[in-house]
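Sample A.
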Amino acid sequence: MILFIFRSLAWLSSIGLGIFFILNPSSSNAILVELQKAEDELVNLQSQMESDKNKTANDELELSKQSTAFRERSDLAKAEELEIDEELEGVSAKSEELDKQVAEKKEELESLKQELAKAGIPLGEIELQGKPLFDREISLKESIKKLESDLAVQKEKADAIASELAVLETKRKISEENFDSEKERLTADVKKPYHLHFADKKEVVVRNKVPSGKGVFIDAGYRDGFRNGMEFLGEKLDDRSALPFRAELGLVQDSYSYLKFVSVEGSGFSPDSLREDERILLTRSGKLSLLKKDKELADSNSTTVPEN
């Protein structure tokens, strides 16, 4: 459009100059100069118009790109708007459901308040009935504190007794070692019978327990120096804290014997938790009147008496 206007102006100027030249020939040189200037300006204007045209094309291209990007963003925004509308519809449905649940819970709460009000009526009576129990609880707590205090005192006494017992056990162990040493010294040159003598020790293993619980079978017999009627003091080697027990040999065979539990009064007695395959240490004991019996046993085995 601008180019058309400039072209029209150029033509009108040329026509005007032609008319002026015809009417005034004396001034042709001046007109030619002016005409040349007009043509130069026309060339400049055409060049400027061409530059403006290129710039306009570039601006239109950039505007087209921006329009395309804007259209894409607009479409994306519309899609997001549709998603948001759908989510809002779902939220509205959930909101209605939640409102309904809230109303139901409010009704339930009102009902519970009424029931609580009814239940609170006998609370005073219950508190009156429970007061003796609370007093009893306080009394029991005081009794427990007193018992705990007494228990602490008794524990201190028990610790003191345990210390004394440890000292006595140490003394007993030293005495036993001295006894064994003195016994070995005194009997070094004495011929012993083939059977176990008094204070002799023998480690055996429990093979079976009799159903009555009054005795056990052990893995040692006649060849180990055991004889019928011998009495022993037994100790559990796997549990040194267990109480010792007394026992008497009943049935003695070559490689096993029956060991019957006895108490001081002669009644049946079974050590606690004595198990099969448990090791026990037997120390021969008994009355001194059995020394005569030992002499007879020694005489009967004089042909096979080894020397220490």
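Sample B.
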Amino acid sequence: MRYLILLIGASLLVNGQPVLANEATKCFEKAWAHPNDGGLGLNRGQATTLCNGATNAIEVTNCFEKAWAHPDDKGLGLNKGQAVALCTRTTDADETTKCFAKAWAHPNDGGLGLHKVGAIDLCASTPKTR
């Protein structure tokens, strides 16, 4: 019985890993690709950081697109580095970007009034190590 439990656990670990690697790979391919080819146009380092540990490539890349887009285009207007920091490992692009918008908004507008870095730290799926 003990060997059966070990076999099941090992099977889940081995079978679960390609799913994570596949999502991270799909994320990286879109993040690194040129915008003319449907990509985000990030450099290799930015794409690697954004997609490291991604479990849902679509959510991560959608979050980045909204975070980086200009406010006139209904984006958050973050620079690439800030958008990467906010969106790395997100599993829900809408919740992440809504959290940032509320955290950064002025208290008179119903927001928390945090500065950009504080709002990113609050809403990012990847905690910062200090």
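B remarks: The chain has a mean pLDDT of 87. The radius of gyration is 17 Å.
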